[in-house]
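W.,

You were right to be curious about this one. When I first looked at the sequence I had no strong expectations either way, so I just let the prediction run and decided to look at it fresh. Below is the sequence, 201 residues in total, followed by the output.
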Amino acid sequence: MAYEVPPLPYDYNALEPTIDEATMKLHHDKHHQAYVDKANAALEGTELDGKSVEEALASLDKLPADQQGPFRNNGGGHANHTLFWESMSPDGGGEPGGELADAINEAFGSFDEFKSQFEANGVGQFGSGWTWLVLDGGSLKLTKTANQDSPILEGQTPLLGNDVWEHAYYLTYNNRRPDYLKAWWDVVAWDKVAERYANAK
């Protein structure tokens, strides 16, 4: 079954003013679609054709050598963006509660310290990439990846990721990536992150 771009769980303009409608249309309809098309082409006729994108990324070495790079980039782009759209909501923001809040406080000292380190990873990612909260061997960790690399490639489970490719923020924030990273907390859907955390544990 070929991959498809999932529909947005909200309207294109629902995350304004944090993310503008034009950015959402381009990012979701054009960029994500391109990743899906190229990921499908990379898997066609291979033993991973029909596997979930997470499973295929975790089994990258089973692909022919000339298809591994294209799938790493485009399958990663599909997985990363699918998680990204679901991690945001017009009703987002605030702080997590319950087990996730406790785990964040334990791992990073406080929610504010977690946010600060997550933003710093995003600012410090040279060029295009992502900043992540992941579950790694049962522990919460922060990481960053270049391009469309997924934490799945390192055996980690992504819980929350913010896209720091320029196409994700440039129309509103221009070159002010730190401003985008700070504003983004206003739309984070913590209930979705908490659900991922509960499932991953």
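Here's what jumped out at me. The mean pLDDT is 97. And, maybe more interesting for your project: The chain is about 50% helix and 10% strand.

Coffee later to discuss?

I.
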